[in-house]
Design goal:
Elements lengths: L1 E3 L2 E3 L3 H15 L4 H6 L4 E2 L8 E4 L3 E5 L8 H4 L7 E3 L3 E2 L15 E5 L2 E5 L7 H9 L2 E2 L4 E2 L2 E2 L2 E2 L5 E9 L4 E8 L2 E9 L6 E6 L8 E2 L4 H12 L28
Antiparallel strand pairs: 1-2, 3-14, 4-5, 5-6, 7-10, 8-9, 11-18, 12-13, 14-15, 15-16, 16-17
Length: 254
Amino acid sequence: MCSKGMKQYLCTRRQFCALAPAAAFAESRIGRRALVARHSPANRSADPRSPLSVGNSEFGFTADFTGLQSLPSLCERGIPLCTQSQWGWHSFPIPPGLNPAQLRLEMFDTYGRQAGNATSPRGQEPLYNWLRENPHRLNLARLGLLLDGQPLKPEQISGVDQKLDLWSGLLRSVFTLNAAPVEVLTACHPVEDTWLANRHNPQRAGLPLYLPGNGGLLAAAALMAAGWQGASSDAAPGFPPSWRVRPEGLRPML
């Protein structure tokens, strides 16, 4: 029996046990930023198994402990460094002589009826594996730091202090590169499929761009359609004038 004011009413044991926490919640407000911040992941060592990512649910950029993708070969042993999106997909050509309609389904009893599922590769491995692997997300590009025009080496880096602020989405990476302090801030636009890295490095490390696989083809097509620094103001300056090309949502890349 519970009382409310001058009235009495019946309540369950679960309702009774919830009265005290509810009263305590009414007396105080949740510090949401502090609650989120205490779960922000951090790296204190050059661990290739713990890259951190920034993104907006449509576009994602995974960074190593330099805040970029400077050590891809090291991270291949752990979690690969990729730049991927919801719109960037790729498929390998189907092997000659195969047809998706040829896939044999494994039958299961489902409430008294037989239902087929693509769960068994037995005797059809090439077709099964092709269907399982295609289409797949495309690694759009890889961006990282250079030192004197050369790729970084893990032994050149020490003093790693990296943290992803879950409240703001900002990735802050501090480390020492050949005895010089470096700070990299990495963020992704909340709406557009773009990201920004702000670097502070007295040794003038470069920012190379690597376009794996079909990422290079997509980048070339984007340059031809949207233009580049110094290109003419014509629409799609990289295509012949007789072609009818109308780019949408593209900006000059370089």
